[in-house]
Write a structure and sequence with these properties.
single chain; alpha/beta; Methane Monooxygenase Hydroxylase, Chain G, domain 1; Rossmann fold; Helicase, Ruva Protein, domain 3; 3 domains; 6-stranded mixed sheet; 16 helices; globular
């Protein structure tokens, strides 16, 4: 066995050991990816190895890893992952096919669900409207488009049809992802979180197949909400000369699937896109998003609320008037900017203790001082907002031309 082959085999062993460790800790999704990775490496190793004994050993290991990965897939699939550690054997999984939670899916449906389980994140977010400060108009738009049609379907009959595609746009760090998670929580929908990296594959045809499988699973598990973050990455304007054939096919497949949601699906299924660059999105894709919601920078009331949310549970000597002053001083800051300011301020007392050497002795009791208004005013001078006035004008103009304003 050459040194290269030996390193490849050792790498597979390391991945398998990591998979077992994650499996024992109950981190099944990460373990699933590691088992699959170990099997893939061993498959490549077998192609180039000529030792029959080693080949037979590797094939046994590949079968074990794939079997365990399949058990974990079955455990993780369905509206809710089942509690408890899944059996190490495959016989139990086979015996239980068609029973319990898994039994509500046919074999073909379960295969489609498994096809995206290692790539697309399916979750039940635990974010409520109250966890998001401000953005009343954005929340109301999402409530009308997502929550009410699912919670009160009898109200949306005849010509009154719910939106099938919504685009959230605005400066970065203003809560677009949080809004999507909160909407899914409020209506108890299956939440599919998708990024451009999830959808793009270097293998010919794989991206289109993945997109198709994603929408099939969303229909199976409806009511569903497909959230596509940074959608401008996969939906840029066509025909500008810098896109490859693979990128064009991905856009075409995505356009087709979103159109299918509008025309063919009877179950509650909504596509929610988010972008910081709406002007880069292809016109045909924009037309698929029937409702466009502008998520602006937080206003004064929202900024005060964000400061309170990100300092909750911390000892401080701030009054209500101090929070109002912080809200005024932070005009032009996004929610993420304010979060960064709060994190920096919260660390100041710890940094002071560390620099004075009081944290060197583990047995010595230390007292952490309260944070105060002066800490915030100092930090606000250092941590500047990321959205410029020119960029803000561009968002506002686009909102007037294309979206809700």
């Amino acid at each position: 066995m050459s040194s290269v082959d030996s390193k490849l085999y050792q790498y597979a062993v390391q991945e398998a050991q990591a998979a077992v460790a994650l499996d024992e800790k109950g981190q099944y999704r990460q373990a699933l990816n590691k088992y699959q990775r170990a099997a893939e490496i061993l498959i490549q190793f077998v192609k180039f190895n000529k030792n029959p004994i080693m080949i037979r050993k590797c094939r046994d290991q590949i079968e074990q890893y794939i079997n365990r990965a399949n058990v974990l897939k079955a455990h993780l699939s369905g509206p809710r992952a089942r509690k408890g550690r899944p059996s190490m054997g495959t016989s139990e999984a086979k015996d239980s096919e068609g029973k319990g939670e898994e039994g509500q899916y046919s074999a073909e449906e379960q295969e489609i669900i498994d096809s995206i389980s290692g790539t697309i994140l399916t979750e039940s977010p635990n974010v409520r409207w109250n966890d998001i400060a401000g953005l009343k108009s954005s929340k109301q738009a999402l409530r009308e488009a997502i929550v009410l049609p699912i919670m009160k379907p009898q109200l949306f009959t005849g010509a009154r049809k719910p939106w099938s595609g919504i685009l959230l746009f605005g400066p970065p760090g203003c809560g677009k992802t949080l809004l999507a998670r909160a909407a899914a929580t409020e209506c108890e929908a299956t939440f599919f979180s998708v990024s451009s990296a999830d959808l793009l594959s270097k293998w010919l045809g794989e991206s289109e197949k993945l997109i198709s499988s994603l929408f099939k699973v969303a229909r199976i598990k409806a009511p569903s909400l497909i959230f596509m973050d940074e959608i401008d990455s996969v939906a840029t304007k066509r025909g500008e000369g810098h896109e490859g054939g693979g990128e064009r096919r991905v856009k075409t497949q995505l356009l087709s699937e979103i159109q299918g949601v509008r025309s063919g699906s009877k179950k509650p299924l909504l596509v929610l896109g988010a972008t910081n660059r709406p002007w880069d999105i292809d016109a045909a894709m924009l037309s698929r998003f029937e409702k466009k919601v502008y998520v602006p920078l937080p206003d004064l009331t929202a900024r005060i609320g964000i400061f309170k949310i990100h300092t909750a549970g911390i000892n401080m000597s701030l009054t209500e008037e101090d929070f109002v002053e912080l809200g005024v001083r932070s005009e032009g800051y996004s929610g993420r900017d304010i979060s960064n300011v709060c994190r920096e301020v919260i660390m100041l007392p710890i940094r002071e203790l560390d620099m004075s050497g009081l944290l060197e002795n583990n047995d010595q009791e230390v007292i952490v001082r309260d944070i105060n208004l002066k800490d915030f005013t100092k930090t606000l001078k250092k941590v500047k907002p990321m959205t410029t006035s020119a960029a803000l004008k561009q968002y506002e103009q686009w909102a007037k031309d294309f979206g809700e304003y």
